Amino acid sequence: MRLRLATWNVNSVRLRAEQVTRFAREQDPDILCLQEIKCREGEFPRAEFEAAGYPHMRISGQKGSHGVAIVSRLPLEDAPALDLCREGHARVVGARVSGIEVQNFYIPAGGDTPDPETNPKFAHKLDFFSRLTAEARRRDPADALVITGDLNVAPGENDVWSHRQMLKVVSHTPIEIEAMAALREAGGFTDLVREAVPETEKLFSWWSYRAADFRASNRGLRLDHIWISPGLRGPALADGASARVHDEVRAWERPSDHAPVTADFRL
Question: What's the pTM?
Answer without folding.
Answer: 0.97
